[in-house]
Amino acid sequence: MAEQTRARAATMEKIVALAKRRGFVYPGSDIYGGLANTWDMGPLGAELKNNIKQLWWRTFVQRRRDMVGLDATILMHPRVWEASGHVVNFNDPLVDCKTCKSRFRADHLLEDKFGRDDAAALSPEEMSALLREANIACPHCGNRTLTDARQFNMMFRTTIGPVSETGTEVYLRPETAQGIFVQYKNIMQTSRVKLPFGVGQIGKSFRNEITPGNFIFRVLELEQMEIEYFIREAEWEQQFDGWRDAISAWVDMIGLDRDLVRIREHDAGELSHYSKRTVDFEYNFPGPMGWKELYGLAYRTDFDLRQHQETSGVDLTYFDQESRERFLPHVIEPTFGVERSFLTVLLNAYDEEATTDVNGKEDIRVVLHLAPRLAPMKAAILPLAKKPELTSVAWGLYETLQAELGLMIDYDETSNIGKRYRRQDEIGTPFCVTVDFDTLDDGAVTIRDRDSMDQVRVGRGEVSQWLREQINV
Ligand code: GAP
């Protein structure tokens, strides 16, 4: 993971404000007063999010011979979720306040009160007993009127067909993983894959979270990038370690600071119903959030394939040509949240630097040190002044770069050059290309580096090759 660490300038409030101001993330349904805990990606957010997903897909699917991809539906047969255990086990412990009607997760209340990070492993009865004993007040209204904890299933339900007649109740998938298990046999038969092999998928999942929040950290509608990696049982520890290293390499690739990421082992009580071993990659979020889950890595054994085999009655075994054995593969699952990647990339990239502006005045510049391959805009073309002789050259360069690079390039001729540099710094554009009056004589432009603010002169005809080498997409 990346070694270097900057002093942390980011707070969640600053990131939320920048995200709205610059068009990364807007509150959902904004003109109707918003719908709590829904967020829309604006023009720059859509680019950043797509860049994260594309990089993930290239890294884990396209550039690996042992991986293939899948794009399964959100709505699946309801028996999938019986087989997977989600109908019975995908619960969070819910506590209501009888006075103000706020809702909380009992394990989170216990974590806050006692600093217990094993609270999630307790039964609702154990949690209720502790809550009663400590006589915890409602964090919202302060009254001591919290109910006991009860289990709440987090899957969203909907109906296919007219509700009053023969509608079928289905769930919006709470994880993308099950699409892979359900299509595992088709993939095996059509893709000539051999163990060990993996299937990667990116897609929406839905969770009726009791306490969503912290901006896009915990949302109801999320996107996951998941891998189910099918292996022989005997190799699970070695494969688990290999995937732990692969996730660490990804964390470096998206530019997160090494000392802001740690790996935490789940203890036995905390493990999901399907897992024999899980580690979380945690990020040290600013402010009271602190260390929270970024990604997960789980050894799911053959739990899912066995469950689907039993529930569907379809043989899901694998026939090993070499050993002439037939068995159910085991599974290692690396799982990545898109929103959490997006949020940590922004938090990690944000900086405020004391500097001087183009007139030599002291100034603070806000800058996103985004990895160039993730930056929404790869370069901005800026004519020094809004004069036809400069803007015509700048437009020509913009069109050439767009055609030759096929990347997002910005063009800006408004306000003074200093303000335009600041605007590009704030959205993380790695390079500003300025067309000035010298360009008309020598045919060269000035390219300014976002991080060092160093400037170099590059011939107009060489700009796209120069950018291609620097951006490394
Ligand atoms: N298939 C395994 C699985 O879904 P998980 O730990 O429940 O495991 C995987 O979720 C990842 O999805 C998490 O590590 C996190 O990055 C992301 N995630 C989970 N719930 C989320 C939520 N409500 N909002 C945003 N991201 C979430």
Description:
The protein has helices at 12-21, 43-62, 78-84, 86-89, 106-114, 124-134, 177-190, 236-253, 303-312, 338-349, 388-405, 417-426, 437-442, 463-471; strands at residues 25-27, 39-41, 67-70, 91-96, 103-105, 150-153, 157-160, 168-171, 197-206, 221-231, 261-265, 277-285, 290-301, 318-320, 325-327, 330-337, 350-356, 362-368, 379-383, 409-411, 431-435, 444-449, 455-459. A seven-stranded mixed sheet has the order 3-9-10-16-13-12-11, with helices on both faces. Strands 20-19-21-22-23 form a five-stranded mixed sheet, with helices on both faces. A three-stranded antiparallel sheet has the order 5-4-6. It has three domains: 2-80 and 154-347, 2-Layer Sandwich (BirA Bifunctional Protein, domain 2); 91-153, Herpes Virus-1 (2-Layer Sandwich), CATH 3.30.40.230; 377-471, Anticodon-binding domain (Rossmann fold, 3-Layer(aba) Sandwich). It is of the alpha+beta class and 473 residues long. It has 14 helices and 23 strands. It is globular and about 75 Å long. Strand 7 and strand 8 (168-171) form a beta hairpin. The relative contact order is 0.12. The structure holds glycyl-adenosine-5'-phosphate (GAP). Glycyl-adenosine-5'-phosphate binds at residues 175, 177, 207, 209, 218-219, 222, 224, 226, 293, 295-296, 333, 335, 337, 339-340.
